[in-house]
Amino acid sequence: MESVTLPPLYLITDRRNTRQRPLLEVLRAALEAGVRFVQLREKDLNTRDLLQLGESCLELTRAYGAKLLINDRLDLVQALHADGVHLRAESMPVSVVRRILGSQSLIGVSTHSVEEIVSAEEEGADFVVFGPIYETPSKRSFGPPLGLDALSAACRRSRLPVFAIGGLTPSRISAVKQAGAYGVATISGILTAPDVGATVREFLRPFTTGSLQNAGFEYNERSQTYS
Ligand code: TZP
């Protein structure tokens, strides 16, 4: 996508990780508190159910002027007219996805190394998620934590905005910002919070005070975006 301005907080869904609350209820609270960037990631749902959930999520995100990306499912992005797709390492290559979706759609890529970031960049992605940075309570399947030094090296090399992921909490944001991260992505940090609204505000605070000079982006208070 040309001239991207992305919100710094990327909320990733996991309807099984919401303390038994309906996902849409938690999502609404997060949007109400200022989340403007969401990825629907419900890998175990069948296509019909995912389509239905996607429609409901999109209705909500649109109401709040937030962007909704769908994990991996290009067909659902197209069916729903969602804002974009989030690709995994084993997904269709970015360049092919870009050809299919065109320049107006957002393409994010999950990465775990500088090499993966470079190839996402070369193939035309809009941003990358890099991690896990810390031990993640969500799952162990994401591999061992990469740590802040790896994040710092990744951010130095990347020309794309880098979102740090894995074990992110509000108290860890200053460290990942310091390492050069543009933003943070989280599942449990928000979805399992007893008070979702208050937690979202805590997540957002470090991005609205001070600057992201390391990442070379400027924050626009009105649109809640960096450019
Ligand atoms: N990719 C790397 S770590 C991770 C993903 C999807 C899980 C992050 O979950 P949490 O709960 O934000 O640590």
Write a concise synopsis of the structure shown.
By secondary structure, the protein is α/β, with parallel strands linked by helices. It has helices at 23-32, 47-63, 74-80, 94-101, 114-123, 147-157, 173-178, 188-191, 196-208, and strands at 9-12, 37-40, 67-71, 84-87, 106-111, 127-130, 162-165, 183-186, 219-220, 225-226. The chain is built from nine helices and ten strands.
Description:
The chain has one domain: Aldolase class I (TIM Barrel). It is 38% helix and 17% strand. The protein is built from nine helices and ten strands. The protein has helices at residues 23-32, 47-63, 74-80, 94-101, 114-123, 147-157, 173-178, 188-191, 196-208, and strands spanning 9-12, 37-40, 67-71, 84-87, 106-111, 127-130, 162-165, 183-186, 219-220, 225-226. Strands 1-2-3-4-5-6-7-8 form an eight-stranded parallel barrel, surrounded by six helices. It has a two-stranded antiparallel sheet with strand order 9-10. The longest helix is centred in the N-terminal third of the chain and has 17 residues, at 47-63. The protein binds 4-methyl-5-hydroxyethylthiazole phosphate (TZP). The site of 4-methyl-5-hydroxyethylthiazole phosphate has 15 residues, from helix 8. 4-methyl-5-hydroxyethylthiazole phosphate binds next to helix 8.
